[in-house]
Amino acid sequence: MQDSFRSVSLTTQDRYAEAAVLYREVFGYQHPDYGLNPRLLGALASNGGSVVGVLDESDRLVAFAYGFCGTDKRGFYHYSQSAVVAAGHQGRGLGRQLKYAQREVALGSGMTRMRWTYDPFQIRNGHFNFDVLGARGRWFAPDMYGPGTDRVVVEWDLTDKPNPVPDHELTELVMPAESTDKDRHEVRAAFEELFAKGLAAVSCRRLPDGNAVYYFGPVDDV
């Protein structure tokens, strides 16, 4: 029998507590400094933030995401801080359900852009962000959470406006299958150089040899 999952907005303290537990389990956090406060989730949900989850057929929370409003010189956007899927349920499309649930929250608040970050060496995440959702890698955040935590800042146009990039305009960046400190330094320099040229990451794919390739193309910064 096919699994049945449904996306919901989380609205009760019991659900916020359940989400906090799931967050710890997925990331393996033990130290209290890395926990997630259920009261914070309640405050976000009550003030325009996204606190969404996916429930299985037993009404158990198996995926969860939260975010909040951000702003820059271009206006307001929704920032997706974190998204987690329980072990055993990954690879079933729940990550996409979470992002689209957050999209509905953002659109309901009048925002048409969403941002989040990820490690550029997480090729599966890059493929999901660009080739599945159609988002774009726009900026680079070196050492975002401390040394060795470089992140790509992703922006997703929530209006579903087509933004194709002709193949002949793409620039390739090959990524090694396993990263060393030297690899990370070189990848940081390459991403920063390509972004400085006004390009955006538009695709990320695994190669037959185990390496991966990013494709960059021009985009309008509107």
UniProtKB/TrEMBL annotation:
Q: Which GO terms describe its molecular function?
A: acyltransferase activity, transferring groups other than amino-acyl groups
Q: Which residues form the signal peptide?
A: none
Top-level taxonomic group: Bacteria
Q: Which UniProt keywords apply?
A: Transferase
Family matches, as Pfam families: Acetyltransf_1
Does this entry carry the keyword Transferase?
yes
InterPro entries to which the protein is assigned, alphabetical? Acyl_CoA_acyltransferase (IPR016181), GNAT_dom (IPR000182), GNAT_N_AcTrfase_prd (IPR038764)
- Which Gene3D superfamilies does this UniProt record tie to the protein? 3.40.630.30
Q: Locate the N-acetyltransferase domain: which residues? A: 23-116
> Record keywords: Cell inner membrane included?
no
| Protein name as catalogued | GNAT family N-acetyltransferase
